[in-house]
Amino acid sequence: MNDNIIFLDFDGVFILDDIPTRSCIKELNRIIRETKSKIVVTSDWRNHETIDELNKLFKEWGVVAEIVDITDNLWPVGGHIAYIERYRVDEINKYISDNNIKNYVIIDDLELYNSFYTKDNDRFFNTLFYKGITKEIADKIIDFL
């Protein structure tokens, strides 16, 4: 797939303290518009809502992109929270491999770059759970894509 793909977490990226945050959504929308990116959801929200329900929430929140897919949930039965980064990275890497993704970034507040499973640290943009996407992070993503 040659489209620009954003592997997107929600909480700590544009939802802060359980609230969709206007300034973060503004920066996310800027990234989406300027890079013409499509969204693949990596957030745990994918385990509780369908893609249609997530797209409805995006519209309510003012996010301009359509979600095109979600990553598989590879969290094993009895999996430990201490390995959440590993599971998330495995899910993203599987999606990239299964779908032949070439142009992508990963936006998450988890410290995925600390996982030895991460292949492409330059494609990973880490947000702080209490700040979310900032102008500086958005600028870096736009420059990268």
What is the 3D shape? globular
CATH architecture: 3-Layer(aba) Sandwich
Report the top-level CATH class. Alpha Beta
Count of helical stretches:
4
Provide a short characterization of the protein structure.
The protein contains 4 helices and 7 strands; from the N terminus they run E-E-E-H-E-H-E-H-E-E-H.
What do these coordinates show?
This protein has a single domain (4-144), classed as Rossmann fold (3-Layer(aba) Sandwich). The radius of gyration is 14 Å and the shape is globular. It has four helices and seven strands; from the N terminus they run βββαβαβαββα. The mean pLDDT is 91. The strands form two sheets. Strands 5-4-1-6-7 form a five-stranded parallel sheet, covered by helices on one side. A two-stranded antiparallel sheet has the order 2-3. Strand 2 and strand 3 (19-20) form a beta hairpin. With 145 residues, it is of the alpha/beta class. Helix content is 35%, strand content 18%. The longest helix is centred in the middle third of the chain and has 16 residues, at 84-99. The protein has helices spanning 22-35, 51-61, 84-99, 135-144, and strands at residues 4-8, 15-16, 19-20, 38-41, 67-70, 103-108, 124-126.
Features:
single chain, 145 residues, alpha/beta, Rossmann fold, five-stranded parallel beta sheet, 18% strand
Structural topology:
Blueprint: E1 4-8, E2 15-16, E3 19-20, H1 22-35, E4 38-41, H2 51-61, E5 67-70, H3 84-99, E6 103-108, E7 124-126, H4 135-144
Parallel strand pairs: 1-4, 1-6, 4-5, 6-7
Antiparallel strand pairs: 2-3
